[in-house]
Amino acid sequence: MIEISNIEKAFGTQQVLKGISTTFETGQCNLIIGRSGSGKTVFLKCMVGLFQPDKGSIKFDGRDVIQMERKDKQALRKEIGMLFQGNALFDSLTVAENIQFPLDMFTHMSQAEKTERVNFCLKRVALTGAEKKYPGEISGGMMKRVGIARAIVMNPKYLFCDEPNSGLDPKTAIVIDELIKEITEEYQMTTVINTHDMNSVMGIGDKVVYLSNGVKSWEGNKSEIMNTTNEDLYDFIFASDFLKGLQKAAVGKK
Amino acid sequence: MYFLSFIEELGKYLAMLLSLFTKPERFSMYWKETMRQMVNIGVGSLIIVGIVSTFVGGVTAVQFSNQIMGLELIPMWWLGYIIRDSMILELAPTITGLLLAGKIGSNISSELGSMRITEQIDALEIMGVNTPAYLIGPKIIAGLFVMPLLVIIAVFLGIIGGMLAGVLGGYYSMAEYIRGTQDMFVPWYAFMMLIKSAVFGFIICSISAYYGYNVKGGALAIGEASTKAVVNSCIIIIIANFILAFILL
After folding, report:
1. A122, B2, B19, B68: most buried, per Cβ within 10 A?
2. Do residue B126 and residue A75 have CB atoms under 8 angstroms apart?
3. Does B123 contact chain A (CB < 8 Å)?
């Protein structure tokens, strides 16, 4: 479980996060949604430790990351896996070497054990056979899978995904969402996903947090979001007349 | 204003250097990366250093020969001595340094810059890797060790170039030239050359890494970082060259 309490972050005079508090449960897909510039990425980067918040606390199963010594922070980071928007795969390494990198850096496993673990992860993301390819030789969807495989190779307790569906076609996006959902439940991870994609919200949103101008404007689950009375959220989700019509029809049917 | 921004940059640069001194997460990974950088910097620069230093030796021979010819006070075999000491004291370390500031400097800054904007550095941070130590440390160590080796090769090829140009141009015989290269040798000059080249290697790799590592923005910022890396490395090499000559001679 990740407990966020009153997080604030400013860059110069610009206050980006204005006191956000929420909780992300274990074994669930927790989605952060919001308009561009609402503070989603800064919020995610504060959680993973890439930005230091100005105020508040971020507790990973009771351990406050902001108060931690550098050494403890490094140890905690080994429990975190992250899937980046642009995948952040190392260009000069093959798919297998990319996935193996954290094992090389942080474990004392033999090469046979590492290969076994890499093959297991590749199988888990349905990428067996792509071991020797370089990131430049595979498709966007495959890169996402490699990113997921690298994120889970160390058996993390917490998985963070920044826009996992960006640049993917709708079908591949659903496949990636389902994969993240399956992995989250299978390994009982606390997964936090930063997204714009309403398909993801409706498909895997166990918990949804809506940010607007650096504040938490709404939180709930995918069922509750359809009947929201928050006008700002309503405008965000049903941005097109087509979607508004669909929502009215769905609510009307009930 | 410029002074304050210079002090700020200098502070950030020194802080970056300080952050390199940490215990490696896995020594074998750092070793592997250092070897990779040595190959990149060393083997990758061998041809260009070879071509440039051979011609620099050659042109030095031709120009000095033309100036000395006819002056009965200076014997022609001195050309060997002049070219050898010119290469050791100044031409090989400085020209190789400036050459590599362009080649290696832009390479390092654009590599790290693109790693920064594609979030590869963030990915390493989140894994728990000390990114300055892992990404910059091996480059600086490689620069410190490989640069003197390249300069030794440059001196050797420069002397060969001088011999070929002088003998083929009919300015002196091979025996005269070889006699000159063996005469009045001061071992301290060779040691000084090694110190200079190690310092230049450090300057090139650390400054380029600093600009690449701190890139903010997109592709345009990578280009700007590469330009700053090359220009500043060249300027600092020239200043360091003067200071070292002053101190060591």
Report:
1. A122
2. no
3. yes
Sign of the C-alpha dihedral, residues A223, A224, A227, A233? negative
Q: At what angle do helices B137-168 and B44-68 cross, to 10 degrees?
A: 40
Q: Which residues pair with A4 in a beta bridge?
A: A22, A58
Could A84 and B25 be called an inter-chain contact, meaning their C-beta atoms sit closer than 8 Å? Answer: no
User: Residue B171 has which token pair?
Assistant: 């300015």
Q: Summarize pLDDT for A148-173 with one digit per residue, the tens.
A: 999 989 989 999 999 888 888 888 88
**For chain B, which residues make up each domain, given as ranges?**
26-248
The two structure tokens encoding residue A2: 């990740």
Sign of CA dihedral A53, A58, A63, A64: positive
CB contact under 8 Å between A106 and B119, yes or no, is no
Distance CA B12, CA B103 (A): 24
The pTM assigned to this predicted structure is 0.87
> Encoding tokens for residue B87?
């290469």
Q: What is the pLDDT of residues A27-48, one digit of tens each?
A: 999 999 998 888 999 999 999 9
Which residue segment(s) compose the domain that A86 sits in?
26-47+74-253
SS3 label, residue B71: coil
Q: Identify all chain B residues contacting A100, using CB atoms and an 8 Å cutoff.
A: none
DSSP 3-state of B213? helix
Asked if A13 contacts A2 with a C-beta cutoff of 8 angstroms, the reply is: no
* Burial call A171-193: b when 16+ CB within 10 Å, e when fewer: ebbbbbbebbbebbeebebbbbb
Domain count, chain A: 1
Alpha-carbon distance of B60 to B82, in angstroms, equals 9
Instruction: Residue A111: give its domain's CATH number.
Output: 3.40.50.300
Give the model confidence (pLDDT) of A171-198 as tens digits: 888 888 888 998 899 889 999 999 888 8
Q: Is residue A60 part of a domain?
A: no
pLDDT of residue A251: 63
* Segment (H or E) for A34: strand A29-34
ipTM entry: 0.86
φ, ψ dihedrals at A218, nearest 5°: -160, 150
Task: Give yes or no for B122 touching A (CB within 8 A).
Answer: yes
